[in-house]
Design brief:
single chain; elongated; mainly alpha; 0% strand
Length: 194
C-alpha cells in the first residue's frame, strides 16, 4: 500500500494518511475533523493547525496521493525507456505497475476525490492538476516507446487506466486482468501504419 503508518511519520503526514483511508473506506462524508484526528492520533488543534478547512485537507490529500503515485510509476517509465523494449512488451510493464496498487482504500479515495471535485469547485483545480500530471506521465511513456503524437494520445491512456481502475474496484479484481491487453490495443492503434 502507498501510505503506511510509521512511528517517525509527522502529524501532517499522519493526518493525510488518515483522511485518505477514511475516504477510501467510508467516503467523503466520513471526513470530519474528529474522525480524522482520531484516526491520525493527533489533537483537533493539530489537525486545524495543518489544515484550516476541509477543502485544504481534501486538496492536499489528493495532491499527496498523486505525487506519490507519480513517483512510484516513474520507476516503471525509466525501465520502459531502455533500448530494445517494444511497445507491446511495455504493456506488460504497465500492468505490473497497476497490479502493485490494484485495490485499496487509497485508490478508492483517489477516485472519490476526483468525483467530489466535479461537485466542489474548491477541489476542482487540484483534480485538474492531478489529471494533467497523469497525462504528462503517459506522454513520457508513449514518447519513450516511440509513439508519434504522444501528447495527443496520452489522455486516452489515462482515461483507460481510470476506467479499468473503476472496473477493478467494482469487481474486486486485484490482478489488473486485461490491463496489458487494453494498453496494447491502444498502443497498436497509435503506431504509425507502415
Amino acid at each position: 500500500m502507498l501510505f503506511r503508518s510509521c512511528p517517525t511519520m509527522n502529524a501532517r503526514d499522519r493526518i493525510l494518511q488518515a483522511a485518505l483511508r477514511l475516504i477510501g473506506e467510508q467516503g467523503i462524508g466520513a471526513v470530519t475533523n474528529r474522525a480524522v484526528a482520531r484516526a491520525a492520533g493527533v489533537s483537533l488543534g493539530s489537525l486545524t493547525y495543518h489544515f484550516p478547512s476541509q477543502e485544504d485537507l481534501l486538496r492536499e490529500a489528493l495532491r499527496t496521493f498523486v505525487d506519490s503515485e507519480i513517483t512510484r510509476i516513474t520507476a516503471y517509465v525509466t525501465a520502459l525507456a531502455e533500448p530494445g523494449i517494444e511497445p507491446v512488451e511495455a504493456a506488460d510493464e504497465v500492468e505490473k505497475a497497476v497490479v502493485e496498487f490494484a485495490y485499496g482504500p487509497e485508490q478508492i479515495a483517489n477516485l472519490e476525490l476526483h468525483l467530489h471535485a466535479a461537485r466542489d469547485p474548491a477541489l476542482r483545480e487540484t483534480s485538474i492538476r492531478s489529471v494533467e500530471a497523469y497525462d504528462r506521465l503517459a506522454t513520457a511513456v508513449l514518447t519513450a516507446l516511440g509513439i508519434p503524437d504522444a501528447q495527443r494520445h496520452a489522455p486516452a491512456i489515462v482515461a483507460m487506466l481510470y476506467g479499468l481502475a473503476v472496473r477493478r474496484l467494482a469487481t474486486g479484481d486485484t490482478a489488473a486482468t486485461g490491463t496489458a491487453d487494453a494498453f496494447r490495443l491502444l498502443l497498436l492503434g497509435a503506431l504509425p501504419r507502415t
